[in-house]
Structure formats: structure tokens, C-alpha cells
Design brief:
mainly alpha; Arc Repressor Mutant, subunit A; 2 domains; 66% helix; globular; transcription; WH-like_DNA-bd_sf; DNA binding; Tscrpt_reg_LuxR_C; DNA-binding
Length: 145
């Protein structure tokens, strides 16, 4: 949960917006005239401020708090129940191994489902897929359309 007093710098906002758009650390560094290690430091600072365990969960929390009504592309195909369960765990920051343990499936199966979800959401990476999925479940769109 983000507190009202949580303040991000303009540079932190710029980095987070680029992450949500799917940019890598190198792309962010180039775009903002930073070095990749500095980008990593900024992401860690934002993680601490937002109280999130990893980059993906940080991007989801940032999107919820700072960009609550952003549009998205609806999925190209229905998202199935197991994929929905997996994505609920991804958006809170669980690793593939942790998801596999919690759902009693193989890590390889988790990766297979994540690849399928990324395709359906037209997401370049796990973080973009998580943000897009979270927008769906917040009511900005519908799952399985």
C-alpha cells in the first residue's frame, strides 16, 4: 500500500513510466542519459518507497497509484483460469519457483503459461504483462473477452 506521503522524484517517475512501457534498463539509461547501474539504483529506491519485492510488483503498484486509468489493449484470446491464478501471483512479486510451489505445478509449466499470457496481452515482457493484467482486473477492461 502506498502512503499519501510517498513522493517520487521526477527522475523516478520517468524511469517507472518507461518500465511500464516495456523498456529495459539499457533503453531507460539511453533515453534518460543515465548509466544502467544508476537506473538500477533508481528502481531499488522506488521499490523501497513503494514497499514492493521486485521490479514487476513495483511497476504494478506504481501503475495503480500514479496511472490508475491508463488504457490497454484487450487480450487477443481468453485468459484461462490457471493463467489468471499465475498472474495474480506475478503481480504481487512471486518468482516462477514460488508460483510453481504454490500452485503445485512445475516451474516450466509456469514459464509456459507466462509465455502464453504475454502473447495474449501483446506484452514484451513479464512486467508489461503484469501491468496490463492488473488493469484488466481493476475493471479498466475485462478478462477473457
Amino acid at each position: 500500500m502506498i502512503h499519501k506521503h510517498t513522493r517520487l522524484t521526477p527522475r523516478e517517475h520517468a524511469v517507472m513510466r518507461l518500465i511500464i512501457e516495456g523498456a529495459t534498463d539499457n533503453q531507460i539509461a539511453q533515453h534518460l542519459a543515465l548509466t544502467p547501474p544508476v537506473v538500477g539504483q533508481i528502481i531499488r529506491r522506488v521499490r523501497l518507497k513503494l514497499g514492493t519485492p521486485n521490479r514487476t510488483a513495483t511497476a504494478v503498484q506504481y501503475d495503480r497509484y500514479y496511472m490508475p486509468s491508463q488504457a490497454y489493449l484487450p487480450p487477443s484470446e481468453p485468459i484461462h483460469d490457471q493463467e489468471i491464478r499465475i498472474m495474480h501471483l506475478v503481480i504481487v512479486g512471486c518468482s516462477d519457483h514460488s508460483i510453481a510451489q504454490q500452485l503445485n505445478i512445475a516451474p516450466r509449466t509456469v514459464r509456459y503459461h507466462l509465455c502464453s499470457i504475454r502473447h495474449k496481452l501483446k506484452a514484451e515482457n513479464r512486467t508489461v504483462a503484469a501491468v496490463s493484467f492488473d488493469r484488466h482486473i481493476r475493471g479498466i477492461g475485462t478478462i477473457g473477452v
